[in-house]
Amino acid sequence: MTLLMLGLAFGAAAQGTAVPFGTVDQDTSLPVEVSADSLSVSQNDGSALFTGNVVIGQGEMRLSAPRVLVFYTENQNGVERLEATGGVTLVNGDQAAEADQAQYEVNRGTIRMTGNVLLTQGANTLVSESMDVDLEDGTAQMNGRVRTVFSSEEN
Fold it and tell me: pTM for the whole thing?
């Protein structure tokens, strides 16, 4: 853990920092579950708009936001991507990230969070302009100006 923190300390001054994200193996082939206060469906573009206390679940991963636009695959048999806005929280294992918005490419197993990104890993925090998460690898890339605060293991 100390080596990871030292690596983050030196990387935090750079324009991008790679960090581990999530402590569970995320299976992106699992079904995507959605709960919300309301739903509007558009037959024109194959989308569904979930609003109000939206919670997306897939395996151990949870994503919540006030508004999530879901785009289905061309044949309408699955979800292609999710666009969450209005303040997004992503939880995977014991780690959490917050941002203004997020886009989840379901088939690729990637999430791009943008706008005031805050990643919390235990007592440590990282802040950046955007973060790209690879759920299958359990990694994240912090992009833009990266700032961090470390907590001493002795405290």
Answer: 0.81
Rg (CA), the chain: 16
Among the listed ranges 4-13, 95-104, 106-115, which one has the minimum average pLDDT value? 4-13
Q: How many whole angstroms separate alpha carbon 44 and alpha carbon 114?
A: 28
Q: Which helix (H) or strand (E) holds 64?
A: strand 61-72
DSSP annotation of 75 reads T
**Residue 108 to residue 96: CA distance in whole angstroms:** 20
Q: Are strands 110-121 and 79-92 parallel, antiparallel or unpaired?
A: unpaired
DSSP lists the bridge partners of residue 131 as 113, 142
pLDDT in tens, 121-143: 888 889 999 999 988 888 889 99
